[in-house]
Write a structure and sequence with these properties.
alpha/beta; Rossmann fold; 7-stranded parallel sheet; 4-stranded antiparallel sheet; 13% strand
Length: 471
């Protein structure tokens, strides 16, 4: 059954769908779950325990494994915001814990003090002792005693009938995590409307290496798991247990046209009104030589908006369909359906972003897209977390910029490019629109069987390719 169907059936019978699935899972040979259930250490123990299964007996099949490093870093990271501290102090007030209420208000005040003099959007690193000492000076009790008091408040809050969440428990989890390791983590303060302090994991191997070392075996797969050696390193695989294998696409080569378009780039130092006009002119000319729908995926919303402002001045024959940052799931589905209807009615131009919900995880079935255009690489100026990641991978692998910055961006671009050819009968063109796709270090992320031509004027190639196709 689909998960939504299980939820509905259980809801109709006043049953917990999770517990029902667990009961079914005890007898199952194949169990499909989120990364969270296996790679979050505390959840894994409870999950497998309920299923009455041992990790040593499991064969793990990890789909879309290119997402695993970032997802694990997220699972092992935790944050504390002003809002969370404020809500925890209200829980203390409700339960009559006056002193603890004041201590939690002091914690909120510490975050405000840490961000004093910073502008919204600014970041800075914070040392472990900086927070621990500030709490002890402000509350006049030890960090350990304060953490234990917050923990007991969380327990009391969760005993209140109808309460399933405690802000105090979130504060406690953060305080305990903050005392953790320095190597493989970064501590960052982010100044914003709701200022937060974050304990960010940098090393996915901290969680996944114990899992893969304990499991009977594992298969990790993805259409963009390149370069393979990087992922072996990031996951901390034992070289004696790993086999790295690449497979050619099973789809006919003649069904796909690959082009690298030169003369344009989204490099930070090259961005300008003139560059955005160049992109718009090329997109407009390309659209005239493609029958059916096109998808144009950009590095960021602000770049997409800048190109669109130039593009609407062109005499386009196809309507523009725009992805928006604030779109709901329903709005995105409606946009998708509109694109599907346009396929046989002159086509449309879908404008979206790389690493967005429309460029990953969406199956444009039935040759819905005749062409996909990748506008540059999603490489923004590194924030503190990215810089910490670069420094850490430099320390551990001597490949900081590659592993922490360039290769993940290439992966997001290639995921978007993969929206074009979805089956052995699909036919279409993939256009990589940035000079950097020609650079040797970037080409390491391109599949071996991705054949491409380099050109500044793709129109002739497109006309020839589509004239030869039979749909």
């Amino acid at each position: 059954m689909h998960n939504e169907e299980i939820v509905k059936k259980c809801s109709d019978r006043r049953l917990c769908p999770y517990e029902v699935c667990i009961e079914a899972g005890k007898k199952a040979n194949v169990i499909i779950c989120d990364y969270f259930h296996i790679f979050s250490p505390r959840i894994r123990e409870a999950f497998l325990g309920k299923l009455e299964k041992e990790l040593e007996d499991c064969i793990l099949v990890v789909d879309e494994a290119h997402n695993l490093p970032e997802r694990i870093r997220g699972l092992l990271s935790i944050s504390l915001s002003e809002y969370t501290a404020k809500m925890a102090s209200k829980e203390a007030a409700v339960l009559g814990r006056r002193n603890l209420k004041e201590d939690l208000e002091d914690t909120e005040a510490i975050l405000k003090k840490f961000s004093r003099g910073m502008k919204e959007g600014d970041e800075r690193f914070v040392a472990k002792d900086e927070l621990m000492q500030a709490i002890e000076e402000r509350t006049r009790i030890s960090y350990e005693d304060f953490s234990a008091s917050v923990d007991s408040l969380g327990d009391e809050t969760l005993k209140i009938p109808g309460r399933y969440r405690s802000y105090a428990r979130s504060v406690y989890n953060f305080l305990e995590s903050w005392r953790g390791e320095d190597v493989g983590y970064a501590r960052i303060l982010k100044k914003k409307k709701n200022t937060s302090l974050e304990y960010k994991c940098l090393d996915p191997a901290l969680s996944c290496k114990p899992v893969f070392d304990s499991a009977h075996s594992a298969v990790l797969m993805s259409g963009t798991l390149l370069p393979l050696s990087m992922y072996s390193n990031l996951f901390g695989f034992n070289p004696d247990r790993v086999r790295e294998t690449k497979y050619r696409s099973p789809f006919p080569d003649e069904n796909k046209l690959g082009l690298i378009i030169t003369g344009v780039t989204t490099r930070y130092t090259k961005r300008s009104g003139d560059m955005y006009r160049r992109y718009a002119e090329k997109i407009a000319r390309i659209s005239e030589n493609v029958a059916g729908n096109l998808a144009v995926f950009h590095p960021a919303y602000h770049i997409m908006d800048a190109i669109c402002r130039e593009l609407v001045r062109s005499p386009l024959k196809k309507p523009l369909l725009m992805e928006r940052k604030e779109m709901t799931k329903g709005q995105k589905k409606a946009l998708y359906m509109r694109l599907a209807r346009m396929k046989d009615n002159g086509g449309a131009i879908l404008m979206g972003v790389q690493a967005g919900s429309l460029s990953e995880g969406v199956d444009y079935a039935g040759n819905m897209l005749s062409a996909v255009l990748i506008v540059g690489l999603p490489l923004e100026k590194p924030n503190l977390e990215t810089q910490a990641l670069i420094d850490y991978y430099d320390f551990k692998f001597q490949r900081g910029w590659d592993y922490g910055y360039i290769y993940p961006a290439m992966n997001r671009s290639l995921q978007a490019a993969g929206r074009c050819i979805r089956s052995e009968t699909d036919k279409g063109a993939i256009l990589l629109m940035d000079d950097r796709f020609r650079w040797a270090n970037y080409r390491k992320c391109l599949p071996d069987d991705f054949c491409y031509k380099v050109t500044e004027t793709p129109e002739e190639h497109l006309r020839k390719f589509f004239s030869q196709q039979r749909y």
